[in-house]
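Quick note —
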Amino acid sequence: MEAHRASIESVNRTLSAGMRVRSVEMEAHRASIEGVNRTLSSGMSVRSVEMEAHRASIESVNRTLSAGMRVRSVEMEAQRASIESVNRTVHSRSKARSAKTEALHALFDRLMRTLIAKMGALPSSKDRERDSSKVRQYTQERWVENPERAKETVMEEFLVRPTPDDPRLSTAVEGIDHEGRRVVTDVVTERPLTLFLNAREIVTMMTIGDHPDLLAIGFLLNQGMLQQDDRITAVDYDEEISTVVVRTERQTSYEDKLKKKVQTSGCAQGTVFGDLMDEIRAVKLSTDARIKTSWLYALTRKINTEPSLYLKAGAIHGCVLCREDVPLVYMEDVGRHNAIDKIAGYMFVNGISPDDKIFYTTGRLTSEMVIKCVKMRIPILVSRSGFTAWGVELAVKAGLTLIGRARGKRFVALSGTERIAFDADLSAAEDEHLRSARKGSRSADGQDD
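Predicted structure written out below.
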């Protein structure tokens, strides 16, 4: 029995030791499991932080994209509004253009009905105002009945002179001066004039609005679109649509001239079409023309003291056709090229020979002025203002007498000096009086003009 009890105790001790060992293993296993759990928990925390950061990054990108889309939406809206504005402008101009075209068609229809009704007869110079349409026909009998146009006879002083009191040419405007006082001053008017040659639109000019017929004819002549032997059948001016139409018996061809043009330095933006630069090389100016210094002094005095729109309102140029010491035709306009074109038109209409004439201008002696003067075959060009280098170069090549800075008894000639006769007594000649001095006359070269 004792042995059996000892055996049982030994088994119990063995079992107890085994159980202790198993308990230790289980404790170690539990500790291992807890370590793994802590590692997993730590990894999950890190992963959670990374995921949170990723989520925040995605939200930031979304916010940026959303803001960018809003900006793009605003830009697209602005662009759409801009396109709509352009479309409205184009549509408005198209409607205005359409209205002008319709008015021109109506003008042509009226003209054709009149011509048909009169079986081809043209209105006389007495029919200058025609019906309630305000369309004026400037056709003169001598243009049609005498294509050769009678040679000039006696030329009187200032056959055409400025009309400063014409209410259409200037307007009174209120303002203040440098001391803050209220003043009323006259300013020159400026209006567009669209020129048609037969059925073709040529150009739109800015002008004061007097003598639209002469301006139209002179422009076409100086641009080579009319020739001296062309027969003008009618010149119609419609004040309501600011349009002048020159009609000729011979059909004209000038498409190449319209494609080739030179922008000149003329104020109010002068334009020279076609091959005029080549044409002036073929012009032969009169070698018999002369200008005496006594004539020059008399001309500058008469022109500067003649009542004019310049003396009333300023901001305007003047051109004068002269013979010897007699100013014949005095034209003014906002652009000197317009003033010279009016004189060209007057010379064409009245058959005036250019060979013994002197042309005076208040503006600079630019290439444009030289080209037009040569084109008109006037051998002497005088200005109270200065020169441009190209203007002088062209004058020398054409053999044009070019006199500038002509004020009082002073002047400078840079071309064609052989035509000048020094007959005046300088000691008796007077300097320009300040009361008759024009803009820029106190400067050294007149470039203000």
